[in-house]
Amino acid sequence: MDYGALLNCLEFYHLSLCQDLDEVRKVLASQQRYSLFIHDDFVPGPDELVSLKTLGQSNAFRQFVLVGSYSAEEKTGLFQWAWRHRVPLLRVLDKPVSLAQLREITDSLVLYHGEDEQPIRASVSELQDYQVPETPRRGRA
């Protein structure tokens, strides 16, 4: 799956495409932070879950999406595991992933740690500066 091309279509350009977890660890050495970690072909085993937990605790990724072939019970189990281990798991998807699914995911990303705080502050300032126009009340002399 060409996630780079699909995410570029959605105007996500800051990407690090890695073939395995060793490459992910090398990328993390640069102290980069990412909004999303998509783990393609994720097979939940003890080692994979420990690696996912470690990545979740690194705070390098704000949210995770796991892609593979899962039953409904496995999906529920992955969400329960993520909740218990405080891994910010956004979605568990079956292959193949479509552009529409990626769009839905990127549209649902949650802002954390003051991300995009300038636009938020500007909106709050606009609300604080807004004055309700006075309207004459009936029966008032």
What are the SSEs and their pairings?
Elements: H1 3-9, H2 21-28, E1 34-39, H3 46-57, E2 61-68, H4 72-84, E3 89-94, H5 99-107, H6 117-129
Parallel strand pairs: 1-2, 2-3
Q: Order of strands across the widest beta sheet?
A: 1-2-3
**What is the arithmetic mean of pLDDT?**
78
CATH topology: Rossmann fold
Characterize the largest beta sheet: strand count, sense, and whether it forms a barrel.
Answer: 3 strands, parallel
Total helices: the number is: 6
| Proportion of residues in extended strands | 5-15%
The CATH H-level superfamily is Response regulator
H/E series: HHEHEHEHH
Radius of gyration: 21 Å
pLDDT < 50 stretches: 116-128
* Total domain count: 1
Amino-to-carboxy terminus distance: 73 Å
Beta strands, count: 3
Structural class designation: alpha/beta
Helix amount: 40-55%
- What is the subunit organization of this protein? single chain
User: Which CATH architecture is right?
Assistant: 3-Layer(aba) Sandwich
Shape, principal axes of CA atoms: globular
Written account of the structure:
With 141 residues, the chain is of the alpha/beta class. It has a single domain (3-128), classed as Rossmann fold (3-Layer(aba) Sandwich), CATH 3.40.50. The chain is built from 6 helices and 3 strands, in the order ααβαβαβαα. It has helices at 3-9, 21-28, 46-57, 72-84, 99-107, 117-129; strands at 34-39, 61-68, 89-94. The radius of gyration is 21 Å and the shape is globular. Residues 116-128 have low confidence and may be disordered.
